[in-house]
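Quick one, tokens below:
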């Protein structure tokens, strides 16, 4: 018996040939280089450094950025890449998401031409790695309240403050630190590896995304050359522009984790026999599988439409938030059902679902929690801000 596909509504018919090629290329890479090896790294909480040059050879780093050695792919292609990496492993997907989407997109959107030429080509080749340092110990969802400071001193800016949950922060060659200037405006400052006063400590004890390193950063009198301040960042609204442009890829990553978990659960249910027959033949299991597939199908179509709107320049922040809110919650439920279908095997990382189950908890939270995304959408549809209690200006 051939295994049914997760593409129940002929989703592939909506894709362009180059988008299918990119998806298949990344999937083949993941099947050969990531899935067979990642569990050991995840269990040891070690980052798979040897994947980095192989990832560079795929030609996907930089996503939708055009020029500077980047692929300039469509938003749909970038989403498919995010989904395929997450389908293999959430940690590797997070590494690429931080580097390609947050760090590189910040430079592409908010840097000037000299800065783009200086940093992006090497980052596209993964000769240098980027990080995006926004979150602070006391400022997560209210990132706009960040306290890290930047003051001008001659031909440098001096940064002081702390950051937390910074993906790639301990291994990055360029850490994009968001800090508040003396005028109160938020700016982006690229701190190069080895800069005195910059300390990065890998966070331990994580129960999710164990194979990618997040760091706590301490900046003490860190001197950054004036030319390392992003030229076109003048306020937190500019930072939000980057987050809005990258958030839709998190919806694709949730889809990738959900798809992997559904496929694993279906294969297990067809293989595992109890009471004299495969458990896939029992009503309760079929009900779960059918509902998982229904959610995945709706997620596929929503991701595709959102990305087409992004390509047309029509995606709004609220649209991206709606997808992240919906997909993270739906994927969380799908992964939980997959873990249940696998029974005891569902908590063994050898079967992969346990890793996806744990990693999905991080995806549910990062780049905007479920509640915050709901309030962004709520503000859009009512015109009233439930975060501030005031109408948006």
């Amino acid at each position: 018996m051939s295994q049914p596909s997760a593409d129940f509504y002929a989703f592939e018919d909506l894709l362009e040939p180059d988008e299918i090629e990119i998806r298949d290329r990344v999937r083949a890479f993941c099947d050969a280089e990531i899935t067979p090896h990642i569990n050991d790294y995840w269990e040891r909480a070690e980052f798979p450094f040897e994947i980095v040059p192989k990832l560079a050879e795929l030609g996907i780093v930089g996503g939708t950025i055009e020029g500077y050695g980047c692929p300039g792919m469509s938003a749909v292609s970038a989403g498919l890449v995010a989904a395929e990496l997450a389908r293999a492993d959430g940690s590797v997907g997070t590494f690429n998401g931080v580097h390609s989407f947050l760090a590189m997109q910040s430079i592409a959107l908010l840097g000037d031409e000299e800065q783009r030429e200086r940093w992006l080509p090497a980052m596209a080749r993964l000769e240098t790695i980027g990080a995006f340092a926004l979150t602070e110990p006391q400022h997560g969802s209210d990132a706009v309240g960040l306290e890290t400071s930047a003051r001008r001193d001659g031909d440098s800016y001096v940064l002081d403050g702390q950051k937390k949950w910074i993906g790639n922060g301990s291994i990055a060659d360029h850490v994009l630190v968001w800090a508040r200037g003396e005028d109160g405006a938020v700016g982006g400052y690229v701190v190069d590896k080895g800069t005195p006063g910059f300390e990065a400590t890998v966070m331990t004890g994580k129960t999710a995304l164990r194979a990618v390193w997040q760091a706590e950063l301490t900046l003490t009198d860190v001197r950054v050359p004036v030319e390392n301040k992003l030229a076109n960042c003048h306020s937190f609204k500019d930072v939000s522009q980057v987050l809005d442009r990258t958030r839709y890829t998190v919806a694709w990553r949730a889809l990738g984790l959900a798809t992997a978990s559904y496929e694993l659960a279906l294969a297990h249910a067809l293989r595992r026999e109890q009471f004299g027959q495969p458990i896939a033949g029992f009503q309760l299991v079929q009900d779960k599988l059918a509902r998982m597939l229904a959610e995945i199908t709706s997620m596929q179509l929503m991701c595709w439409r959102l990305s087409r709107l992004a390509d047309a320049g029509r995606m709004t922040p609220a649209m991206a938030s709606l997808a992240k809110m919906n997909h993270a919650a739906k994927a969380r439920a799908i992964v939980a059902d997959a873990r249940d279908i696998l029974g005891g095997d569902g908590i063994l990382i050898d079967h992969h679902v346990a890793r996806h189950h744990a990693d999905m908890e991080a995806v549910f939270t990062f780049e905007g929690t479920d509640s915050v995304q709901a309030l962004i959408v709520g503000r859009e549809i009512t015109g009233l801000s439930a975060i501030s209690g005031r109408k948006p200006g």
